Amino acid sequence: MAEKESVTIYDVAREVGCAPSTVSRAFSRPGRVSAATHAKVMEAARRLGYRVEAPDQQERTGRQGRLGVATPDLSNPYFAEVLTGMQEAAHAAEYLPILLDSGEDEDRERAALERSLEVVDGIVLTGTRLSDATLLQLAKRVPMMVLNRRVAGLDSVTPDYEHGMSQAMAHLESHQVRTVTYVAGPANSWSDGERWRSARTRAAEHGIRVNRIGPFPPTSRGGEDAYAELVESTRAAGEPLPEGVICYNDLQALGLLVAALRDGVRVPQELSVIGHDDIPLSRLVGAGLTTVAAPKREQGRAAVDRIVRRIRQPSSIKGPVEGALPVRLVVRGSTGPSGRR
Q: Transport: present as a keyword of the record (predicted)?
């Protein structure tokens, strides 16, 4: 008895009533067809007994048309603007970004990444807290790119934290600020470690005494809690508040700023406050928040451009590509001459 002939994509195309090229895209790059068409093709393939290759057997380059985009907190305006830049670059490269929001939860982030590995061509991590070893293990399966962090062996794009902190300290020194507290961000945050390291180095260069409190969540509530701890610790030591505060990000800084104003502290005469990121809200509170402006959309676009090149032309890139984008200090009403002298 003759064996039954193998089912081909042409058979599936006739069953669905579409072109063979559409069936091919549905199998290899589902992001390039509608959800309804994809469902029809897969159902027809099942009925006819067409064997779809497992993801690991498919050609990796461009096979899905999707990019995983992992973010720790979608409600943070900083990440929202970075994602806007990513979406612009992904659209230009004909890729569909798939959002993975971890909610600042490492277990949730790891689970989301592992589930996405078979349905994306690459992953961009905008603020991961996972260990280097975990990321390198995941990167063996798909290309990965990290933002706001450096991992040996992976491509990365970060703001120039050291230059930003240098500008902040020079600005405070110009207003005769001599004592500064740095409010730390999340525990195990690479970017927080870089900011604190830069703060110590640059403060010493400008003759400023700096200390650190935290860690605190990168939220406005985190900033309020930081102010409460700052007040409690200085009172317990019988010392005045520092003349300046530099926060991990703008949300923290805004929370701390509002808490200080409610407490009757005169800003900036008694306390200068600096944030980091230049989110839209930083222009709207009081006389505005002085902040280190990071090129958020540019960072998002650069990340997608690089990972797409890594996916499409892997042999043209010999090693990890690391980039630092320029930042600038935006001066607003939350900083000024110290009124204590």
A: no
Q: Virtual CA dihedral for 213, 217, 218, 223, nearest 10 degrees? A: -60
Containing H/E element for 161? helix 161-174
| Summary count for the chain: helices (H), strands (E) | 11, 12
Tens-digit pLDDT profile for the chain (341 aa)?
333 457 788 888 999 999 888 887 777 666 566 777 877 888 888 888 886 554 443 444 446 789 999 998 888 999 999 999 999 999 999 999 999 888 778 888 888 888 888 889 999 999 888 888 989 988 888 999 999 999 999 999 999 999 999 999 999 999 999 999 999 999 889 999 999 999 999 999 999 999 999 999 999 999 999 999 999 999 999 999 999 999 999 999 999 999 999 999 999 999 999 999 999 999 998 899 999 999 999 999 999 999 998 888 877 677 677 888 999 999 999 999 987 65
For 130, which DSSP code?
S
**CA 207 – CA 327 distance, rounded (Å):** 23
Angle subtended at Cα 138 by Cα 77 and Cα 98, rounded to the nearest 5 degrees: 40
How far is CA 93 from each of CA 87, 133, 206, 223, 296, rounded to the nearest angstrom?
A: 10, 30, 45, 39, 19
Query: Which two structure tokens, joined as six digits, stand for 160?
Result: 């120039």
Domains and CATH numbers, the chain: 9-52 (1.10.260.40), 66-159+296-325 (3.40.50.2300), 161-294 (3.40.50.2300)
Helix (H) or strand (E) holding 157: strand 155-159
